[in-house]
Amino acid sequence: MSGSNAVQAGQIPGAATSKGKSQDAVMGTYGRQDVVFARGEGSWVYTTSGDKYLDFGSGVAVNALGHAHPRLIAALTAQAQSLWHTSNLYRVAGQETLAGRLTELTFADRVFFCNSGAEACEGAIKIARRYQFVAGHPERWRIITFRGAFHGRTLATLAAGGNEKYLEGFGHAADGFDLVAFGDLDAVAAAIGDETAAIMVEPIQGEGGARLAPPEFLAGLRELCDQHGLLLVLDEVQTGIGRTGKLFAYEWVGITPDVMAIAKGLGGGFPVGAVLATAEAAKGMTPGTHGSTFGGNPLAMSVANEVVAIVTEPGFLDEVNARALRLKQGLARIKDTHPDLVEDLRGAGLLTGLKLKPNVQPADVVKAASAENLLLVGAGDNTVRVLPPLNVTDADLADGVERLSRALTRVAKTIT
Ligand SMILES: *Cc1c(COP(=O)(O)O)cnc(C)c1O
After folding, report:
1. Best mutation site among 116, 122, 150 for ligand 1, i.e. most ligand atoms within 8 A of its Cβ?
2. How many angstroms is it from 46 CA to the middle of ligand 1?
3. Atom of ligand 1 nearest to the CA of 117
4. 263 within ligand 1 shell (Cβ under 6 A)
5. Span from the CA of 355 to the centroid of ligand 1 (angstroms)
């Protein structure tokens, strides 16, 4: 093992400590696979024991450009040698560059930088409430959200997602969210009241099972917002930065939001998030109304600027769409081969999923895929997600489909 990505001496996973195994010292909030990765390259990751896995989970749609992309390494190391952090008490050059670029590329006029998807969603919620407040409607503070949604693990974003399992044991859920059925425009219309400030929605529910919002549903939400003076907030934390084949998923629909949360793919693996807004929607966000110590720090900005530069290069997204089509064809073949296991193909672009038959568990497919050295990610609604890097090669894409097919054959043997 060599190179800077190697696990260093003194960081031996599972080593004994005076209090037990070092892996038990990590708080047990995750059901993790028993594998430790030491380095990655392109669409592949290599374990400390030398096995290699094809990464079609991309760190949950984060490693948009695969692992160890030379240009991202160059951007990060160059920045690391000059300046890491100054705080937001001062102007940050990389923020101005990236905000300028993101506003050129999108509906937005203003960008706030943070460190994660949940923070981006929290920021979006605050912007929406604050907008109504300065517009003379302090009573409008509630947000309409959708069943099956996932907006993060902070107390407010948990309430926004409404997943009972995630809320259990954490006291009363934060107030201010009205949950309705995903895709049900009439239910949304009925839920709008005097206190409604905004509607917040994922164009594709990622964690919820790669569930695509019909275009006419999103267009209908835009119309309802316009009719009622509400803000349309899109959570593109998972769908953004080219994941669906457009830079942002809303571009497929031909509408624009007022506010948008992004994160995951933005840093290509470096933690960074952002909230984008129109000047109108952001007009309440004056000095002191929001902030973050780390948000938009020079290291994060150096990588995010490079990610955006690469993803917006001419032809890049065309290639993503070509790969997405090949993946879809591959998944369709798998569905045909395993009609007793696969109920439906889900998603768009390279945010895809297989909805499984009720007698098959996503965890079983993830496990069988691991046995074929393929990484996948489970999701809600009995779905397993297939999320290759946006720049996956044709050979790796074909290889991944083969591995997935073999994994389902393994699962089939265990189903009676
Ligand atoms: C992952 C995700 C989040 C939360 O992001 P974190 O970085 O885990 O806080 C929010 N919204 C969507 C749509 C996501 O996929």
Report:
1. 150
2. 26
3. 5
4. yes
5. 21
C-alpha triplet 384, 143, 154: angle, nearest 5°: 55
pLDDT tens for the chain, residues 1 to 416: 344 445 554 477 788 888 888 899 999 999 999 999 999 999 999 999 999 999 999 999 999 999 999 999 999 999 999 999 999 999 999 999 999 999 999 999 999 999 999 999 999 999 999 999 999 999 999 999 999 999 999 999 999 999 999 999 999 999 999 999 999 999 999 999 999 999 999 999 999 999 999 999 999 999 999 999 999 999 999 999 999 999 999 999 999 999 999 999 999 999 999 999 999 999 999 999 999 999 999 999 999 999 999 999 999 999 999 999 999 999 999 999 999 999 999 999 999 999 999 999 999 999 999 999 999 999 999 999 999 999 999 999 999 999 999 999 999 999 86
Mutational test site, ligand 1, from 207, 259, 292, max ligand atoms within 8 Å of CB: 207
Closest ligand 1 atom to Cα of 263 = 7
Ligand 1, residue 153: give the atom nearest the CA. 9
Residue nearest atom 5 in ligand 1 by C-alpha distance: 117
C-alpha 57/C-alpha 351 separation (Å) is: 10
Q: Is the CB of 152 under 6 A from ligand 1?
A: yes
Interval between CA 273 and ligand 1 midpoint (Å): 10
Domains and CATH numbers, the chain: 16-62+315-414 (3.90.1150.10), 72-311 (3.40.640.10)
Whether the CB of 121 sits within 6 Å of ligand 1? yes
